[in-house]
Write a structure and sequence with these properties.
heterodimer, A: mainly alpha, 11 helices, 0% strand, B: alpha/beta, Rossmann fold, Alpha-Beta Plaits, 2 domains, 4-stranded antiparallel β-sheet, 12 helices, 26% strand
Chain lengths: 257, 321
């Protein structure tokens, strides 16, 4: 009860702060548009590669962009914690008896909500650009769900890294370091059958790939529900583990005080 | 109300922030932890407020072992940190409301407490403005309001007036005095302003290099020194003669020659003054003035830490730089 209540209050705090920054709202809402149009134009030729059978480029790309944006948008969540550490808000909060998990989950909830809004925008834009969601509304909801799960996991990881590193520069480095490799070591932008064998092998362990595979399979028809269920399961597990990591990182942070 | 014993805290690689620090604060007292930057004051506060764990030692606040039962202790204490703890993007009311929620206070009770604390700290008009528009004094008052929303029994103030301009500092002092007097709150404050400790604290502990080197009421510490300062203003020509005359007196020691004056210390200043004047008269010296000063906390600091307060602060600053 208290835990859920505190989580909600903490997430409201972060949400309010973001909504009061018009620049942030503007960027968050236009980013999906730019990504989909840009990657759409850039990767249009992918459908002409012999062996590609993903349907139209926009069908193929829409789920990929949802997943990519989920990681890149949620990856920066830890910046809020670093801001709080520098301003003194973190120490004041930790001197209270609040459940530490609520501090992480509240911030994660704000990140996930952002991801859900951005994913929905991408899906609608894709529709306008002629994407066929043969998986129906249910399939699209699964796509948004895997984006949310992936975003939640990376938001927690980002918070955990922020608490351990305590420095803006380290977090920026870590996020930049993982973002592109994770995207390219997945089926987000390129069909699995067309990438080198070693990338295919690595991608089996890549959460971005789990989300891309499951989301695409669910939303774009010919759904392999076994695949969807197993990938969603893995993402839930990852989310739980990363939330644990972040909550435990408060202890690490306090040890350094 | 607060009892810390033999606290030791080291930071890697080998900074010994606390080196066996002990202190006791009686209920209802305002207790000043006085020392230069880096002496271990903030570390002490972090340990006593459950933010940080010592390597060894024990600490009890409001009868609760803070190391064994940190969550219970957190309910009993309020903390105002060195930095502003308010969320600059949120309004004063939002800050106080979230703070109450963190302590498990909800609903109508919370709304009532928030309004009362806005009124009490003179923030009612600014309640729905974002904190980043607040003046330094308003932010500091909000910090104190945040620390008190759950009505703790003990309040920790870590350098409450550092960086405030003199007028706001004076307001803050009035506020702290009021809290202790009207609400019977036990207050532990850290400061590197001697004046602040002298004005606010019923008892002070002087901290140097992670240890308490002296403790007691400011008055007691000062009179324990038994060393009033006597300054005799003399003309240029008579300075040497005055110096020699004072040097010969048993009641006066640490005789020094300064610009336009000769100074010395005496156990009992009032008794020493006639002796000094008589000695000067015998030597044919006609002083133009004489002042008698009780020892300051700086003198106390000098005595116990072996150097002047300002010097110690400078050394720390150099180390930090």
């Amino acid at each position: 009860m208290t835990a859920a209540r505190q989580t909600r209050q903490v997430s409201l705090r972060y949400l309010r702060a973001l909504l009061r920054q018009p620049a942030w709202v503007g960027i968050t809402l236009t980013q999906p548009l730019i990504w989909l149009l840009l990657f759409g134009a850039l990767f249009k030729a992918v459908t002409k590669i012999p062996g590609f059978h993903g349907g139209s480029y926009i069908d193929f790309l829409t789920p990929g962009v949802v997943v990519m944006l989920a990681v890149s948008s949620a990856g920066w969540t830890g910046m809020g914690f670093i801001e709080d550490m520098n301003s003194g808000v973190m120490d004041r909060t930790l001197a209270s008896p609040v459940w530490r998990g609520a501090l992480n989950l509240g911030s994660v909830a704000q990140a996930v909500l952002t991801v859900v809004i951005q994913s929905t925008l991408i899906v609608l834009l894709g529709l306008a650009l002629g994407a066929h969601y043969s998986g129906g509304v249910g399939g699209v909801l699964v796509l948004i769900l895997v984006g949310a799960l992936l975003g939640g996991a990376f938001a927690s990881l980002s918070n955990g890294v922020a608490l351990r590193a305590r420095q803006r520069e380290t977090l920026i480095g870590a996020v930049s370091f993982v973002l592109l490799p994770l995207t390219f070591l997945s089926s987000a932008l390129m069909q699995r059958g067309l990438v080198p064998g070693w990338i295919r092998t690595i991608s089996n362990y890549n959460p971005v790939n789990w989300a891309a595979d499951a989301g695409r399979s669910a939303a774009m028809g010919h759904t392999d529900w076994g695949l969807v269920a197993s990938r969603v399961g893995l993402l839930v597990l990852l989310l739980a583990l990363s939330a644990r990591f972040a909550t435990a990182a408060f202890t690490t942070y306090q040890r350094s005080l | 109300m607060i009892a810390a014993s033999d606290l030791v805290k080291t930071y890697p690689p080998h900074v010994r922030a606390l080196d066996g620090l002990s202190l006791t604060v009686p209920e209802g007292a305002v207790f000043g932890l006085l020392g230069p930057n880096g002496a271990g004051k903030s570390t002490t506060v972090r340990v006593l407020t459950t933010l940080s764990r010592p390597d060894s030692g024990t600490a009890r606040v409001a009868g609760i072992d803070v190391l064994a039962e940190p969550v219970r202790a957190r309910h009993a204490i309020g903390v105002v940190g060195q930095k502003h703890g308010g969320d600059a993007e949120a309004t004063g009311r939002e800050n106080l409301t979230l703070q109450g929620e963190l302590y498990g206070i909800t609903g109508r009770d919370l709304r009532r407490r928030v309004q009362r604390s806005l009124d009490r700290f003179g923030l009612a008009d600014a309640a729905d403005r974002r904190v980043k528009t607040y003046s330094g004094g308003m932010q500091r008052r909000l910090d104190v309001a945040l620390g008190l929303i759950h009505e703790p029994r003990v309040l920790f103030l870590d350098e409450p007036t550092t960086g405030l301009d003199p007028e706001v500092r004076a307001q803050m002092w009035g506020e702290i005095e009021r809290l202790a007097r009207d609400e019977g709150l036990t207050v532990l404050l850290t400061t590197h302003y001697l004046e602040e400790a002298d004005r606010l604290a019923d008892e002070v502990a002087i901290v140097d290099r992670g240890r308490v080197v002296a403790a007691g009421s400011p008055e007691a510490l000062k009179s324990e020194l038994r060393s009033d300062m006597i300054r005799v203003q003399v003309s240029e020509q008579e300075r040497a003669a005055a110096h020699a005359a004072l040097e010969r007196l048993d009641a006066v020691h640490e005789v020094e020659v300064g610009a336009g004056e000769v100074s010395g210390r005496a156990q009992n200043g009032a008794a020493a003054v006639p002796v000094v004047l008589a000695a000067l008269a015998r030597s044919g010296v006609a002083p133009t003035g004489l002042t008698l000063a009780r020892p300051s906390l700086d003198d106390v600091y000098l005595r116990y830490a072996g150097r002047h307060f300002e010097q110690a602060a400078e050394v720390r600053d150099e180390v930090a730089a």
